[in-house]
Write a structure and sequence with these properties.
single chain; 222 residues; alpha/beta; Rossmann fold; six-stranded parallel beta sheet; 6 strands
């Protein structure tokens, strides 16, 4: 039988074996807001939940990013082929995909987001916003070396983006209060595992403090 441990004991176990070391922020960030679209943020829709608190925390980061000229990228999952053929096997796995049809309200970004016309909207078909998109080219063109990730769901599209971003060599940070999952257990486990292996899990205040310091350093260097 596997050894039974508490969450705190698990954390100690992982740390003792070298997991969860801090990556540390770089010099130039992009804020990636994963799938805060009506299909997921409207509780009346099949895939929706009340994400008011998480959107509020994300807006704090968006506001700081806009203030300092930091790229803000929103990902949107949408499908425009008949029968959702462009969704691949995902269309077989869950029926809520019917709310992600191109041209319908479900694929619109939540109007509560403090989005500006200059922000990037990235269309995707699969969980990761890196798969089948030009996000890497966009990040490289802006000389981005750090990803700050918010969005939903923590165990799904957020985690997929984090693993891929990390795999492409970007130090990646997950903002705990600005991410959401329908299942509290999935949320907690996913944060734990990402922090152990793929990212630093941080707070909104951590990110804001670092962004302001990074901008101050850049201004001083000019």
């Amino acid at each position: 039988m596997p050894e039974r441990r508490s969450t705190a004991e698990d954390a100690k176990f992982f740390a003792a074996r070298g997991f969860g070391r801090r990556i540390g922020f770089g010099d130039r960030a992009a804020l990636v807001v994963v799938d805060y679209m009506k299909a997921f943020t409207d509780p009346s829709m099949a895939l929706g939940s009340d994400l008011g608190a998480e959107i509020e925390q994300t807006n704090r980061l968006i506001d700081v990013a806009h203030e300092h000229g930091i790229a803000v990228i929103y990902s949107v999952a949408w499908y425009d082929e008949d029968g959702f053929k462009d969704a691949g096997l995902w269309a077989l796995k869950q029926g809520g995909i019917a709310t992600l049809k191109a041209g319908t309200p479900g694929v619109e970004l939540d109007p509560r987001l403090h989005r500006r016309p200059s922000d990037i909207v990235l269309l995707k078909k699969y969980a990761s916003c890196f798969y089948g998109t030009d996000i890497v080219a966009r990040l490289n063109a802006r000389r981005v070396d750090t990803l700050i990730v918010t969005g939903c769901t923590t165990s799904g599209c957020v985690r997929a983006a984090v693993v891929d971003g990390f795999s492409y060599g970007y130090p990646t940070f997950v903002v705990e209060e600005a991410c959401f999952d329908r299942a509290r257990l999935s949320h907690g486990v996913s944060l734990f595992e990402m922090n152990a292996k793929y990212a630093d899990v941080v707070s909104v205040d951590d990110v804001i403090g670092w962004l302001e310091q990074a901008v101050a350093r850049e201004m001083t260097a000019r």
